[in-house]
Design a protein that fits this description.
Number of strands: 10
CATH class of the largest domain: Mainly Alpha
Largest sheet: 10 strands, mixed
Radius of gyration: 35 Å
CATH topology of the largest domain: Amino acid/polyamine transporter I
CATH superfamily of the largest domain: Amino acid/polyamine transporter I
Structural class: alpha/beta
Number of domains: 3
Helix content: 55-70%
Distance between the termini: 65 Å
CATH architecture of the largest domain: Up-down Bundle
């Protein structure tokens, strides 16, 4: 269990300030002024801090709305967007934090070797790494107390800077620098200086009042460091020429009153950043382990009696050491910056989503305008691609891959998750817009409503329904529960489980499927109520699908339901599954067409769906009274084939004689599709399906379909 040990100043403000005031301030800010002038440098500082301020405000807002828990940014994102997105951000964030330890150690060592050139770079790096490991392993409290010492060194270094030389006999260059590099490239080099705002947030699990400590500490650190950067920027502009600033990145050491204090400040800045990451990154790993996001999670889900995540600290130390020994710091430095920016951007987008969806549960005590989080999110994305387009794409791809892996892992958790709310919000807005637009048959696709009375023999039928609606159609399965049964709750649960099992194969294919059970004394009455309700919904069905069973006593109810569905504007599908052949080889589809049939559009559309999903072949069949009419019928079918854009393989067959005899003469198929005319009843459908000796589908248009468009 985490120990609540730290307050605002110690746990958030100090580590955040020390993470922001790094080597860029000492060794790059003067170069920035030299390149773009005082006004340009101030603009870069303002734009950079605007992005981090928006992010800080977003963090402040969301931390006053949720119990953040351990893990900092990972915890915030997971509790809003789900563990999969949280893990996709959290895993790269942890690795970036751990490897950043090596970067800061390398920066410290460079300064050390500058003073003591006789010392070995690798030896100093490993010794520094070991000291930081011991400090962080013993106690985060000790680490934070050492940061006070480092903070004091940085303060004295700033005093030394401002008391340094005030003029080199040159006028101040406000609007122009040497201009060797354009403004946005200079911005890209400076921007990483202000991205250390998560140092305090990462300690969320050990803060006394994170909902108060994080907002105050983070925003105060952003404000203080902003004014320090601005002040140092002015100092550079007044003490050196643009040429000197652009050509000598360490000029601050030469211009300060006490050279050793500035060198100590540079070393302290890098050392404090390394120590902050050494303390913060194991907390991120601990949070990932608690939610079983990473392999071997149980090995790192441990806190010692002092409240320290010792296994997580040791793994972090190992990763940092391997990075130091590999010596590939510059190669991956840019990618690590991208992962930090992805994290900041996601935090902004999280707040934007929670606000725009209008969910009542989002009630932060620290409120910000929605535009702030939007600016922060866009700003982070813009900064990413401004700094390095290739590294940005690599970081985004890695994040997406981790997300896909975690989705397939199918993590179960009880964390709040607004992802469903996001898509409901989008669906609501889209449905509202769609309801105001006119309907045209061109947009038709199979959206079936399917009454299920008994689950027996439905697996084969469900497979056929999948072949009709795949890939972009919809299916609603519903059943009616006798409201007179003694245990309606158990009966409803059993019925829904049966429907879920029946429709599982459709869901596995990514088809939009929903199931429901309704209480009613009569199946027909309940079915009519469900159908009427769904037809009036935002995503209405357009076809009633009925399975024709063996019990002929129910034919009257089926007839009444069909009549009702037609008055509601639904197309009709009546399906009879052959008990032996079922669907045969799923190859040949016979489509029976009458000239000028009112059902031709739905018949053809469903035939085309089966042709595509079965990878089969269509056959257009027409019956004529005698042989004299065969040529005319063939011409009609050829024109129809061209008009409807059938494939070349589509066969045309004309059979002379009575309809019932023609059925026996027709080429064999795996399913036969017929239109339903006014004189055709349920008994006729049973008789025809018996004669063709295959599964049969009977269709009636609703005038919502159009196979020509």
């Amino acid at each position: 269990m985490e120990t609540k040990r730290f307050g605002t100043f110690e746990g958030v403000f100090t580590p955040t300030v020390l993470s922001i005031l790094g080597v860029v301030m000492y060794l790059r800010l003067g170069w920035v002024v030299g390149q773009v002038g005082l006004a340009g440098a101030l603009a870069i500082i303002v734009i950079s801090n605007l992005i981090t301020l928006c992010t800080g405000l977003s963090i402040a807002s969301i931390t006053t709305n949720i119990r953040i828990g351990a893990g900092g940014a990972y915890s915030i994102i997971s509790k809003s967007l789900g563990l999969e997105i949280g893990g996709a951000i959290g895993i790269p964030l942890y690795l970036s934090q751990a490897i950043s330890v090596a970067f800061y150690i390398a920066g410290f060592t460079e300064c050390w070797v500058l003073i003591f050139p006789q010392h070995s770079f690798i030896f100093v790096s490993i010794l520094t790494w070991f000291i930081l490991l011991v400090v962080s392993y013993l106690s985060a409290k000790l680490a934070f107390r050492l940061q006070y010492v480092i903070l004091g060194i940085i303060v004295f270094s700033l005093i030394s800077i401002f008391l340094g030389k005030t003029s080199l006999g040159q006028s101040v260059s406000i609007w122009h620098g040497v201009g060797q590099i354009n403004f946005w490239k200079v911005f890209a080099i400076f921007f990483p200086a202000v991205t250390g705002i998560l140092a305090g947030v990462s300690m969320s699990g050990e803060l006394k009042k994170p909902e108060r400590n994080i907002p105050i500490g983070t925003l105060l650190a952003i404000a203080v460091t902003f004014f320090i950067y601005v002040a140092v920027c002015f100092w550079f502009a007044f003490v050196a020429t643009p040429q000197d600033l652009a050509n000598n990145t360490s000029i601050i050491i030469d211009l300060a009153r006490w050279r050793i204090l500035v060198i100590a400040g540079i070393m302290g800045a890098t050392l404090s950043s390394a120590l902050s990451m050494f303390v913060a990154s194991p907390r991120t790993l601990l949070a990932l382990s608690k939610q079983r996001i990473i392999p071997f999670s149980s090995q790192f889900d441990y806190i010692n009696s002092k409240g320290e995540p010792t296994p997580a600290i040791l793994l972090t130390a190992l990763l940092a050491l391997l990075t130091i020994l590999a010596g590939t710091l510059n190669t991956i430095a840019g990618i690590l910056t991208m992962f930090f920016l992805i994290t900041y951007g996601t935090l902004n987008i999280t707040v934007f989503i929670e606000k725009i969806t209008g969910i009542i549960s989002f009630r932060p005590t620290f409120k910000i305008p929605i535009v702030i989080s939007l600016i922060g999110g866009i700003g982070c994305l813009y900064a990413m691609f401004l700094i390095n387009q290739l590294f940005s794409l690599v970081a985004i791809v890695v994040t997406i891959i981790i997300y896909v892996v975690l989705v397939r892992k199918n993590i179960r958790n009880n964390l709040p998750d607004i992802r469903k709310g996001i898509f409901i919000f989008i669906a609501e807005k889209a449905t509202k817009i769609a309801s105001q637009l006119p309907y045209h048959p061109k947009i038709w696709k199979p959206n079936l409503i399917i009454p299920v009375e008994e689950g027996r023999n439905w697996p084969g039928v469900a497979e056929f329904i999948k072949d009709i609606v795949y890939p972009n159609g919809r299916a609603v399965f519903f059943t009616i529960i006798d409201k007179n049964i003694s245990d309606k709750i158990a009966g409803k649960k059993k019925a829904l489980e049966a429907l879920a099992f029946m429709s599982a194969s459709l869901k596995e294919e990514g088809i939009f499927v929903s199931t429901l059970a309704v209480d009613s004394a009569e199946f027909l009455d309940g079915a009519i109520i469900v159908t009427q309700t769904l037809v009036g919904s935002g995503l209405p069905p357009n076809v009633l699908f009925i399975k024709l069973g063996l019990d002929q006593e129910k034919d009257h109810a089926i007839k009444d339901l069909i009549i009702k569905a037609q008055t509601m504007g639904l197309g009709i599908m009546v399906f009879r599954l052959h008990p032996k052949s079922v669907f045969g080889q799923k190859q040949a589809v016979n489509i029976w067409i009458r000239k000028m049939s009112p059902n031709i559009h739905l018949t053809i559309l469903i035939g085309l769906q089966l042709e595509k999903n079965w990878e089969g072949k269509l056959r257009l069949i027409q019956v004529v009274a005698d042989a004299n009419e065969q040529q005319e019928a063939q011409n009609y079918l050829y024109k129809l084939k061209k008009l409807m854009r059938f494939t070349r393989e589509t066969e045309i067959v004309v059979v002379a004689g009575s309809f019932e005899k023609a059925i026996l003469k027709a080429p064999l198929a795996d399913i036969n599709i017929f239109g339903i005319s006014k004189e055709h009843d349920i008994q006729w459908m049973r008789k025809i399906s018996d004669k063709v000796n295959t599964s049969a589908l009977f269709l009636k248009d609703s005038e919502q379909e159009n196979a020509v468009e």
